[in-house]
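Entry 14. Structure prediction run on the chain below.
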Amino acid sequence: MADTTGGGRLHLALAGDIEINRDNPEKVFDRILPELEKADIRFGGLEASLSEKGAAVTGKITMRHHPRMIEGYIAGGFDTVAFASNHCMDYGIEPFVETMALLEKRGIAFSGSGRNIEEARTPAIIERKGIRVGFLTHVLNLPMGWGANPNKAGVAPLREDPLFGPPYLNEEELEAMAETIKSVRPRVDILIATFHWGSSQSRTLTLSQQAAAHTAIDAGADLVIGQHPHILQGIEIYNGKAICYALGNLVLDHDHPMFLPTVKESIIVRCVIEGKEVRRLSFVPVLIGDDGRPSILSGEDEKFGEIMATMQKISKKLGTDLKLTGEEAVIIGP
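Output returned:
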């Protein structure tokens, strides 16, 4: 992996949802390893628990995967994951807690989940080259009872509900998120707020997404990364900070009749930190192949142009102009 000695300039690779469920999981990222290996810190989403324990909840699509699927994350060099989704407790608390223990054992930091609410709101902090990067995760798509409390394991909650009234977020939890960000801010040089949010397979943003993102940046976050919609959503610049509302699926080893071809499109965000500030932000388009493995698209690929055009269009609606440079799109440049 990238050299982690020296100082001054840090490269992050930020990905969306990852759901590995296959033979030879350690080979799933083979085609994008050169991209991942450029980074000093790699982040993605862990969609489901890695356990054989528990019983499926009723009334929703459920998933869990064998613990050996962690070998995919290890082989991809992922330093930290958001383990906080609408599927992470599909089989109950026991496999949820077991997954956290597995991540700890294998040296992968996680955010958004915990054995109690204090732990769920604790950031994953990765230090490289003398720069401390923090990751905080909250869940808006929150099944009833999945939020952590002082005496129960669960995820960091930011409940959305039409009964709350615009912007449809629980006011106490929104305030708690802001206070968490403010308390973490002095401990890190860069703070990335990540969210599991939005409407599945829709490019339309919800009021809840925008309210949560803006609140996070107002409280001190340097960058916002979104997961869950299974489709790419636009990029907004708010008070000089970027909000990448949804990065799509990096791996989706799950088939469902409702899935459209767009669930195979995603991006990897390249974040360059220099002088302890986000100096450059860009992305490269990714496509999941027929074998379920992701590839970085080149300018010669037809899908490259399609994904770039889509991101330009939906980001333009949010007031963001993307600059196509070589085979990447620049969001924020020096």
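DSSP finds seven helices and 20 strands in the chain.
Filed with the rest of this week's runs.
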